[in-house]
Design brief:
366 residues, alpha+beta, Double-stranded beta-helix, carnitine biosynthesis, dioxygenase, iron ion binding
């Protein structure tokens, strides 16, 4: 297959040692300062040799391009490139009945022993959207070390790695004993955290606080099949959110986003749903009723497939905050929780590097 590639693109992607750093995979030239606008292949400057295209340019520079490398850049569709960048796998969509008897889990020692354990752990999270870790020492130190096996912990207005009880030390219902409906965290951030981990270290003198998980991608698929108009509305009409419970801050995203957020190729990328933190619905007055009707159908589906399971000491729960909604029932007594956030890009990088290796991970972009 031959594609009419602009010559400036070819010259811009020269990987010789003068143009491209072999270790950092970064360009060493300033494209628009150092490559002339009239760059072109010199007369008789293109020839094929052992699977390579070799080019001499009109300014004397020489470049070589592997045919397979070139083909990979123009053979795949935008959709497949999107899959590569997201690190998409064949997702296992689930309702409570599918996973209640055998939810995804991995042993703490396996994760801590080597990157093979991290590989298996991140693949389970990518596939199911959540994973339990068995036999973790019930301490904040062990839990923090576990989370840092993936990446740096994200700092927010809650701090970094958090260790808290229901004392309202932060202005959020998470710091109370109230029940909390199914939601995703950080809808008030322009980019919500990618992963969240909870570890209940203790629960004394009370009961309740059962954790709720819902596969948002499974719910979206059901909504699309059963109520396509509602799916379209929640994919197009946007919503603002805010976090204003602390005296020193009111966090608001720079733009509104839909409940069901897709990438440019139509893949569902993220679920953003938090009625507690919801602010203005960013649509016209005549569209408001349609949004509420669609949202009601959405919440009905969430309830149909929700999964309830108590947290317990020694068994942290990690989940994909862009896919899986979480909540809890009200509780009495004193619970001590710890955990933290991981950025989305850091999680996907760690997943791809451990599961696919460096060369396959960077080949679509370098």
């Amino acid at each position: 297959m031959y594609v009419n590639v602009p010559e400036i693109w070819l010259r811009d992607h020269c990987h010789c040692e003068k143009c491209f750093h072999p270790s950092t995979k970064q360009r060493l030239i300033e494209t628009f300062d150092e490559i002339p606008a009239d760059i072109s292949i010199a007369p008789n400057g293109l020839f094929e040799d052992a699977g390579m295209f070799r080019i001499t340019w009109n300014n004397g520079h020489q470049s070589s391009y592997d045919k397979g490398w070139l083909q990979a850049r123009f053979d795949s569709t935008n959709s497949s490139r999107s899959v590569e960048r997201q690190g998409l796998v064949e997702l296992s969509l689930w309702a409570a009945k599918d996973i209640k008897d055998k939810p995804p889990a991995i042993d703490y020692d396996e994760i801590m022993a080597s990157d093979d354990g991290v590989k298996d752990w991140t693949r389970l999270v990518r596939q199911y959207g959540f994973c339990y870790v068995d036999n973790c020492p019930p301490s904040p130190e062990a839990t923090q070390s576990l989370l840092e096996r993936i990446a740096f912990i994200r700092h927010t207005h809650y701090g970094g790695f958090y260790d808290f009880t229901a004392d309202l030390s932060k202005g959020d219902t998470a710091y109370t004993q109230l029940g909390i409906g199914a939601h995703t965290d950080n809808t008030y951030f322009t980019e919500p955290a990618g992963l969240q981990l909870f570890h209940m270290l203790s629960h004394t003198d009370g009961e309740g606080g059962v954790s709720q998980l819902v596969d948002g991608f499974a719910a979206a698929q059901l909504l699309r099949e059963e109520e396509p108009r509602a799916y379209d509305i929640l994919s197009r009409y946007c919503v603002f959110s805010h976090a204003s419970g602390n005296d020193t801050s009111s966090i608001q995203p720079i733009r509104s986003k839909p409940v069901l957020d897709h990438d440019g190729c139509g893949h569902l990328l993220q679920v953003r749903w938090n009625t507690t933190d919801r602010a203005r619905i960013d649509c016209t007055v005549d569209q408001l009723q349609s949004w509420y009707d669609a949202a009601r159908k959405w919440t009905d589906i969430l309830k149909r497939i929700e999964y309830w399971e108590p947290l317990r000491p020694g068994r942290p729960l990690i989940f994909d905050n862009w896919r899986v909604l979480h909540g809890r029932s009200a509780f009495t007594g004193k619970r001590r929780m710890c955990g933290g956030y991981i950025n989305r890009d850091d999680f996907i990088s760690r997943f791809k590097m451990t599961n696919y290796g460096r060369e396959q991970t960077i080949s679509p972009v370098a």
